[in-house]
TrEMBL record:
It comes from Paraburkholderia phenazinium. The keyword Glycoprotein does not apply. GO terms for molecular function: DNA binding; DNA-binding transcription factor activity. This is Transcriptional regulator, LysR family. InterPro entries: LysR-type_TF, LysR_HTH_N, LysR_subst-bd, WH-like_DNA-bd_sf, WH_DNA-bd_sf. PANTHER family: HTH-TYPE TRANSCRIPTIONAL REGULATOR LEUO, HTH-TYPE TRANSCRIPTIONAL REGULATOR LEUO-RELATED.
């Protein structure tokens, strides 16, 4: 490696390039032009004596040597930040930074609006961006590890053990259907439930059982899914025009019964409520700004639960 001095900016470009494997995404994240990042990449290649990123099909991938540089670069950036910005306090009222939260769209109708309201009330000069978990490159775990996401909210039955976790609230499973459904109110038995055709939303792995199917199985229930949608917001409008059943959370179902001719029936035999969590990576565990964001989300969940 060249003995030429490498400054903190180049280290930041290096780390972002290697974790994103993309000049264009690096430019976007760092607020720079692609030509500027390309120049920095050429300089880094000269300094390290390695191509760092090479083409594989239609995308770029790090070389084996580049992979060994990711952790040292991250540690260097962390150390530099600790030296240059040693403050341990955070004032949301004066910050102008941008926070990113990963969340599935079943939280859009009741949880996300409440977070947005509380966020802008406490941090009027800041920005908040919600990212659908399906649209985070490398998945939400990579989003947290890379720093692209500050926080992730969801209701997994078994969240990843290597991430920090805080339970937020619980919500029960119910069955949503059109108000004039042939299944009369109070007549949704286990046999009727299992004979009916169901609608489901698949947001992650289309081959694996989702959280709801796992919970139904614990209660000895199964469902025949004949219609699958990519977004929860589409489901209520399909229900209005069909005889499909949709097993979902009460918060989501209650919201749409106030907007559309839909009704709620209990899941036969009952089911354990789902727990909503917020997840974060160790890299932001001690960050004052990230701690404020987590407290805000936890307070929003608590207030929603009380109402």
């Amino acid at each position: 490696m060249s003995k030429e001095i490498i400054d903190s900016h180049l280290i930041k470009v290096l780390h972002t390039l290697l974790t994103e494997s993309s000049v264009s995404r690096t430019a976007t994240l760092l607020g720079q032009s692609q030509p500027t990042v390309s120049v920095a990449l050429r300089k880094l290649r000269e300094m390290t004596g390695d191509p760092l990123l090479v083409r594989s099909g239609s995308r770029m991938v790090p070389t084996s040597h580049a992979l060994t540089l990711i952790d040292p670069a991250a540690q260097a950036l962390s150390s530099i930040a600790a030296i240059l910005h040693p403050t341990t306090t955070f004032d949301p009222a004066t910050t102008n930074r941008t926070f990113r939260i990963g969340s599935p769209d079943y939280l859009d109708v009741f949880f996300v609006p409440a977070i947005v309201d509380a966020f802008h009330s406490e941090a009027p000069g800041a920005k908040i961006e919600f990212k659908h978990l399906m649209m985070v490159d490398g998945g939400y775990e990579h989003g947290l590890e890379s720093g692209f996401l500050d926080l992730v909210i969801g209701n997994w039955r078994t969240p990843p053990e290597h991430l920090h976790l805080q339970p937020l609230c619980k919500d029960e499973l119910v069955c949503l259907m059109r108000a004039a459904h042939p299944i009369k109110p109070g007549r949704l038995t286990q046999a009727v439930y299992q004979e009916a055709e169901h609608l489901a939303v698949t947001t992650y792995n289309t081959t694996a059982w989702g959280t709801i199917d796992v919970e139904l199985a614990r209660n000895g229930l199964s469902r025949t899914v004949t219609t699958t949608l990519p977004y929860f917001g589409m489901a209520p409008y399909v229900l209005v025009r069909s005889n499909l059943l949709f097993t979902t959370t009460r918060a989501l179902a209650t919201h749409y019964t106030g907007l559309l001719p839909l009704r709620i029936e209990p899941v036969p035999g009952g089911a354990q409520p789902l727990t909503y969590y917020q997840l974060w990576h160790d890299r932001t565990h001690r960050s004052a700004a990230a701690m404020w964001l987590r407290r805000l989300v936890a307070n929003v969940a608590k207030n929603l639960l009380e109402t």
